Amino acid sequence: MTTFADQSVHAPTTTLLRFATAGSVDDGKSTLVGRLLHDSKSVLADQLESISRTGTPDLALLTDGLRAEREQGITIDVAYRYFATPRRRFILADTPGHVQYTRNMVTGASTAELTVILVDARNGVVEQTRRHAAIAALLRVPHVVLAVNKMDLVDYDEEVFARITAELIAYARQLGLADITAIPISALAGDNVVEPSAHMDWYAGPTVLEHLETVPTGPDPGRDVARLPVQYVIRPRTGARPDHRAYAGKIASGVLRVGDPVTVLPAGRTSTVAGIDMLGAPVDTAWAPQSVSVRLADDVDVARGDVIAPSSDVPPLVRQFEATVCHVADRPLRTGDRVLVRHATRTVRAVVHEIRSRLTLHDLAQHRAEGELVANDIGRLVVRTAEPLPLDGYADCPETGSFLLIDPADGNTLAAGIAGGIGD
What we know:
- The protein has seven helices and 25 strands.
- Strands 7, 8, 9, 11, 12, 13, 15 and 16 form an eight-stranded antiparallel sheet that branches.
- The radius of gyration is 23 Å and the shape is globular.
- It is 16% helix and 35% strand.
- α5 (127-138) packs across α6 (158-175).
- By secondary structure, it is of the alpha+beta class.
């Protein structure tokens, strides 16, 4: 079957993979990213010179750009890098390992199609490794690479690699992570990162770059339900177009076609797609994640924050819902807190009605939360909103099945959440 990703219209000559690195402090994430950039010839000459002034290049400095990061030798912010090979283009997010900056790992992994979780071969699986695996499962990242790093420091011992792999894969299976590829590497020495290692003849799998170049990417929009969160209402009111009214936004999922019967939520008004414009030209069909403007056949009241969906499959409108959140703020989140819910392009007032449980990482059990979540907790809660929200299940549509909880006093993000939870 021909998928939308296979079509040549508007399609790039190479595919794009968004991926993130994760793992505990000093597991070697930044060095791995630096090695990928260096060995794939994606480093400019002046960059290479700037990190080589002491002789051997310090590859971690290619991503650890903040002064505080260089002084402390850790990653604090999410470092985004762009590179390409003849087979694929990449957007990578090098995320922090320190527990204090787990919130930044959530940011980096939220748009990733693949997460590379590093483990120091000397230390094995630690709590932060489990936390990052749980976040990958929560965000339903479809592909996970377990990179057992620093194999040179354990004499390239196959048994060490096998033991760590078995432990993390067993844990990941409980989380619902299905596609896991384990690769033994030394990011510092370059073993199995871009080039195969001469020290591990017992390993016959792909290098990290080989896997990144060949892993399947992108959903098939033709199989997903259509969702268009409206970002902007276009009313030029010019002499040439006095009555033009269009609704602009990025298609969150699925396919929109001229002639499709649609419903505008939360109002519930119905109409038909009369026209679709993309890049200033009319088209008959558009699909995620294209940015478009849509014209409707009827004079329907549509505003920023509304969602246009096919009338045959509209999301449920809810004023109360249960969700799983990763709490990212320094201050606790408590039952009764008044918050703002930012859902797609809509923001509504809400209250934390109940905090039901907190996930413990060692046994993946939900335990009573005593009415609050603290920084880096993953928990289940119930939210009541002042206005109805068209909320999909996260598994059905991540864009309209996820949300942020915002502090109404200062605008800071309190928690990132999804409708449902791990394994739902």
